[in-house]
Amino acid sequence: MMSFIKGFPLIIILILFITAFIMPLIKKTKIVKGVSLISMSLSMILALINLVFVINNGEYLYRIGHFNAPYGIEFRIGIIEAMMGLLFSFVALMIIWYSVYVIEKEIKESKVSLYYLLINILIGSLLGVVYSNDLFNCFVFIEVGTLASCGTIIVKDKKENIKATLKYLIMSCLGSGLVLMGIAYLYSMTGHLNINYIHKELIKTYLNYPNAVLIAIVLFIIGLGVKSAMFPLHNWLPDAHSSAPSSSSAILSSLVLKAFVLLMIKVLYRVFGIEILNHFSVLNIILILGSLGMIMGSIFAIFQKNIKRVIAYSTVAQMGYIFLGIGLGSDIGVSIAIFHIIGHALTKSALFLSVGAMIEQTGHKSLDHLKGIGKEMPFTLGLFSIGALSMIGIPILPGFISKWHLSLASISAGNTILIAVILISSLLNAVYYFPIVINGYFGEDNLKGKIYKSKSKPLKELMPVIFLVISMISVGLASSGIINLISLGFQ
After folding, report:
1. Before 395, cis peptide (omega within 30)?
2. pTM for the full model?
3. Which pLDDT does position 146 carry in this prediction?
4. What local confidence, expressed as pLDDT, does residue 450 receive?
5. Low-confidence ranges of the chain (pLDDT < 70)
6. Where are the domains of the chain?
7. Of 298, 9, 271, 277, nearest to 126 (Cα)?
């Protein structure tokens, strides 16, 4: 039984890939949606069983094929990988559930089966990046995921989507190329592609090739920085996220960026290790860029008139917190970065879906046209408001927990100036989120002529967003236990 459960990560990816290629053969869109929902539900159940197994029995390596590492491919499933497997499949399931009701309003019916094919391939490849213990295998999954991501944006078939996709594709290819060069450097120095074996060789020989090791680290930071929207490499993100269908925006922001930043953590802390990182002082670069992202992402968001662009720039700011945690270089810093990945994935997917509902019902994306929306869609704006409060950092919610622990980690690292950066960023978050909520619910001019609940969506269509918000609050309430689990997994 134990060896069967150890195969669950591979089974999850196979379920998603195999069902993806069945979808175009099915003529009825209802059945395609059903296949997508069932495949993602199965994946989530297997991911949950896998997480319980890892918590009880510890991490394990799973060989794929006939050859043992370093020649064969293997998955490494620790607590963090198992948690991410559950997070990715749960958030994807909620987004697919939401899209079932609305996707025909955003894309042509003839492209619905293609859309769900792309989503299954995308989630499968992101999980491949999370689970793989082999750098070249990670690269293959990155490439598959990038093409599927582009597909989920361009599927809308509008001029702005084609432009945004081309921009994303060019930037992404640049990022992928740099990652591949980084892998080539490591292979030439160590003769291995397996993460554990590369680390063993590097620790013995990195002083012999200091320049090559430094170049490899920088290649990975820039390459994966482009993929995960690290400031100032983020300029593809606002266009891609704001022009895509709402469900695609939710997946891109909440999951796609997170898989690449997790790979960055894996590369920095497991391929190179803290000894090599401290020797070259590269973490300071990530710390500075993370801090800049937190401030500049929020400043850009303040000046946006399109609500989806506001949330897209907010993502740049929130990724800054994750890079700040990575750059601190301490166990607690990285643990909080991973905790923020969980909180942000749940929050941002809920925000994009609730905004998608507002745009669908009103036909407007501009903030001016959404004034008074709280009277017409009180419940939807309520869900948006809870997500916004988490982003700002209101206690109990996961956004606050991340900021609080990052502040503590900054103090223990002797870098108290970062507390000011976190505070300024939180205030800037409030500057662009609060007006949306206040103008939605209050002001005689805003509410004039609006009819109470006139544009409300049926409860069944909002259920996935409600589940995401409940999960987000639960993560905030159970934060100490989750952070302890992550710390255990990171040791």
Report:
1. no
2. 0.90
3. 87
4. 65
5. 1-2, 69, 443-456, 490-491
6. 281-491
7. 9
* pLDDT of res. 1: 65
pLDDT value, residue 443 = 65
**pLDDT for 451:** 65
**What count of other Cβ atoms lies within 10 Å of the Cβ of residue 387?**
27
The token pair that represents 330 in the structure block:
């301490």
